[in-house]
Amino acid sequence: MKLMFFGADKAVTGSCHCLQACGKTILVDCGLNQGLNEEENSRFPFDPAQIDAVLVTHAHIDHSGRLPLLIRNGFRGKIYATGATCDLLGIMLRDSAHIQEVDAEINSRKGKRAGHEPVTPLYTVSDAEKVLRHLERCTYGTMVQLCDGIRFRMVDAGHLLGSASIEVWAAENGQTRKIVFSGDIGNLNQPIIRDPQYISEADYAVMESTYGNREHDPIVNYIPQLAEVFDRTFAAGGNVVIPSFAVGRTQELLYFIREMKEKHLVKSNPDFPVYVDSPLAIEATKIYSGDLTGYADKETVRVIRNGFRPIQFPNLHTCESAEESRALNDDPAPKVIISSSGMCEAGRIRHHLKHNLWRPECSIVFVGYQAEGTLGRILIDGVKQVKLFGEEISVKAQIHNFKALSGHADHSGLLRWAGAFTEKPRRIFVIHGEQTICEEFTDELNRKGYRACAPNFEAEYDLLADRMISEGIAPEKLHPEGARRHLSSAFSRLLAAGERLLRVIQHNKGGANKDLAKFTGQINSLCDKWDR
User: Fold this and answer.
1) Per residue in 460-498, pLDDT tens?
2) Residue 207, domain extent
3) If pLDDT is split at 50, 70 and 90, which confidence band does 220 have?
4) What spatial distance separates the first Cα and last Cα of the chain, rounded to whole Å?
5) Biggest distance spanned by C-alpha atoms of the chain
6) What residues are paired with 193 via a beta bridge?
7) Of 153, 377, 414, 421, whose CB has the highest number of CB atoms within 10 Å?
8) Separation CA 369–CA 319 (nearest Å)
9) Which domain CATH number covers 23?
10) Per-residue DSSP letters for 344-361?
11) Is pTM beyond 0.85 here?
């Protein structure tokens, strides 16, 4: 019985972990890397065809974004997630694929003028739609028998609509181990969704640490602080631009703005217009406006029962088309623009930043975590100039970072989650945090009497013997001074295809001589064609 670590190990994005037990191989999450490690997305450190099932903690792309690629490379099993996560995956994966296609088209057009080969997208909308056929809907608290010897249950993680921590029981050789995967642990008192539910027993816990060394700002009610930023910006004649994750964070913001308007907190422009400029956010808002039974917190249930729509209010507008999006920057009237992506890495938000960053009367309001290497993180860190669409843009706008709006538990929240175990687990594996944060939080857990470690990429742990089998690859060896970063995405995919070919060769060991000779001839013909 083994646990293997294939993503978000001493890193924040790309969550992917693997349990081998009872003759089955099960992935927990299959996320995209964002920021520094994007070139690694095309390569799996395992054979997707050998994966029997996938458990998805929630719909955020850094936990689900490589599912289309998994299926393209041979996965044929079921993908288990809560009903709300399945609904959100339907729009999020299509949107991710659309971004992949558009970026590939743009880069191909630029590369053609330089004599380069066309760029192919990581995956297509068609690939994303294939994921939906594999989805198996689960409900919180219901035990699911995955196969003989393995069962699991999903518990509300309080991070995003439908998000889950996952309890897995595996019985092998007369011994049972319970492994808990935290997913992303939610912050307390978020609007719409419930607080995280805690788990009291585990032999092993795989635990996120995004804010493992930081506390959120001590703000009980941050609506007045947001309103103050809005008021000051509108009075100066500027726009409030909010890079926001399309799913979860955008709907929370709409909830806050509805309350802000009801209480008349923005004096300079009480009926200020709000534009949601993200087709994905618009689709997600429809899901959040539907049946929230089993997901909503008590306050949201009360608002709905009183006849209010919790994320609807006067002067709220949506921008479906690119033309509507561009028109926002031609309109001089002060406004709120909520657009994705939340880390400013892609999408329409980059156009809005281009048109507003240089204006001192404007405000850029960050309301979520910004991973190392992303444009959002660079802006928060105080850069004075950025390059957008080939143009140097001065950063003159006011930059605000509302850490308290994070959907992640802070340092105290993480300790609260770990402290809910009535007996300390045999081992806590600390993942999903920047390297220094993972290591600092691991050290703190050890000082508090836990047995904790921060595993490297491709580390392997024997859950029955309770020992590390392989230490994996340390970050400094995995990316020595960014040595791989120069590889084109097309060449990265070629390497991935070569690795898959080697796996296929191994799988044909013991095959009929006639078939193996034919396979050999095909490989040699291919090599003869390209060995130049």
Assistant:
1) 999 999 999 999 999 888 765 443 433 444 555 566 567
2) 2-215+407-486
3) low
4) 45
5) 82
6) 296
7) 414
8) 25
9) 3.60.15.10
10) SSSSTHHHHHHHHTT-TT
11) no
